[in-house]
Here is the input.
Amino acid sequence: MTDVTAPLHISLLAYIPSPSSSGFSIGPLYFHAYGICYVFAVAAAIMITRRRWARRGGDPDLAYAVAWWGFPAGLIGGRIYFDITTPSQMPHHWWGPFAIWDGGLGIWGGIAAGVVVGVWYLRRHLSWPDVYRFINAATPGLLVAQAIGRIGNYFNQELFGKPSTLPWALKIAPAHRPAGYAHFATYQPTFLYEIIWNLLLAATLVWLDHRRKVRPPGLFPLYVAGYSAFRIYEETLRIDYSQYILGMRLNFWVALIGTVAGLIWFARIQFFSRQQPRDSEAARPRSRAEYSRSGLR
Here is the structure.
């Protein structure tokens, strides 16, 4: 006779499962989840920037125009950075350097190229003071976009960290495990840590901005310093391929430089700049022509 009073043993899921596919097909077309995440990332950045720029009296549609120029530049810059820093990871075909669908994007190159081109476009339509104010308005959206983009790494089963048995460890399929780690099943979900950090940092920057004590474009160097500081920690966890310098991953040193440079840049804007006033959402942006008539540049 069966003892009905015997304890029931329930198997609990002690890891995060990985998706079985990195995309889906509709007829002859295959849609990569990585690319779809980038579409939503750009849309989120535009929506956030539109709202924040409109509250400053600016034309919200300017966010569309900046994204039209900045996003393609970011893709190109991100791919160039990836190709330069990890050439062995490119597909071995003539189209390998351009294959953003089969490789990666370097966030440092993407942000640098996107911002440079975006500022170039803004300067054609706004004075420098208003370019700085637009940068303050757009910066939190960049972090939200990065967080959404990192979801694509989940579908690709990439950018994870060292083996782990934590309850939130990520299970990686054998085909995606690095050399020497085939016998480990679960790993640190470093992309998830970055998602959480980016959203928290974005919220912190918005809170600081609402206090109106940050001189434009001070939010951007705070973003550079804050994101880079987290990457210093993240680079000590990741085990994917990387160039090494003095025993540390290349992006560890890039992040260290970014943290120091961002803090120095912010201090210079906030404490040593006498020309740029603190941001105010009530001031209407003026065109370059208006500033020229007033004798300002």
